[in-house]
Amino acid sequence: MAWSPVIALYVTICCLAFVMSKVVISFLLYKRWKRTRTIIEDSPSGGKVVVFRSPATQSLSSKAFMKKTMKLSNKNIIGSGGYGTVYRLSVDDNTAFAVKRLNKGNKDTERGFERELDAMGDIKHRNIVSLYGYYIAPQFNLLIYELMPHGSLDTLLHGKSREQKPLDWATRCRIAVGAARGISYLHHDCIPHIIHRDIKSSNILLDQNMEARVSDFGLATLMDPHQTHVSTIVAGTFGYLAPEYFDTGRATTKGDVYSFGVVLLELLTGKRPTDESFIEEGTKLVTWVKDVVKEKKEEHAVDSALGSFPIKEVKKVFRIAEECLESDPSKRPTMTRVVKMLEQINSIVN
Ligand SMILES: Nc1ncnc2c1ncn2[C@@H]1O[C@H](COP(=O)(O)OP(=O)(O)OP(=O)(O)O)[C@@H](O)[C@H]1O
């Protein structure tokens, strides 16, 4: 059946309007995307700096960042991990950032790497360490993060410094619920949903108000597994990995829930999952705690540095940890549920 010229004209106009609207929308989205970032190509090094615009990065021009970065030395190091070294980068007396220098990833994955970083820059939550920008160059990559003045939960719980005061019960509870809210946000509120894959006490950092912030989200997927240290099997860290991960190698939100359960045990007992005493006794933190809870002797497992603590609340947190550590992933609660359960602990205000 032949179309009348009028219908053919209508169809042509509709198709053109459709294509034009797509082009205009893409252009506007690109303009908006550009407005939220400062991008500088550094021709001598072949590198590129991208700074996500926000009130916190107003003082950080890409040029200033490049200059300061080139001057970073060993005395600026604040930590190091499987993915690289972390430096303190001070812009002025009041402004500083944490800069992570990454061991170089795979060249083929560079485009995907940039896309992932751009997406990570859009994630903002009071319990997540913000990514402020990045630098990509042929020799190395840098990630610019918000600086967390109180360092990591791992150092606060297990650090050797004698001046350091042990964390009290109320602070531990606040850290637990803050970290849980951060993970829950990644799992349930981000689109697409994000599985962290490496929840552990050294990836829970503390801001100026001792509020917990989850860091390193997305890094486990970004980095080539062969570039990371020996304790990382595909992704994740020994002692925190859910048992099913060893069989399937698949990261899931329930795997993060398990790792968070291990962090809860660390907060309760003050012991690392890889504590030497467990190896000597042929057990591990999770098994030891399960036995203690079964015998209703939780008070014997509590961190001796804790001083006084409300035993009823301690028992409740042990029970929440136990649920997170169920061997069957389907029996573990979601992180939203974990947040709700923790919020019922009296020492947790707001
Ligand atoms: N944004 C930050 N602010 C302050 N200190 C930080 C920041 N990021 C990392 N650190 C410090 O640097 C240390 C090393 O961090 P990094 O994330 O590189 O390794 P990790 O978490 O210890 O181990 P892994 O690389 O296996 O995850 C942290 O334990 C923390 O003390």
UniProtKB/TrEMBL annotation:
Per its UniProt record, what SUPFAM superfamilies does this chain match?
Protein kinase-like (PK-like) (SSF56112)
Family statement drawn from the similarity comment of this UniProt entry: Belongs to the protein kinase superfamily.
PROSITE patterns in UniProt: PROTEIN_KINASE_ATP, PROTEIN_KINASE_DOM, PROTEIN_KINASE_ST
So which domain of life are we looking at? Eukaryota
- Please give the name of this protein: Protein kinase domain-containing protein
Q: Which residues cross the membrane?
A: 6-30
Tell me which residues make up the Protein kinase domain: 72-349
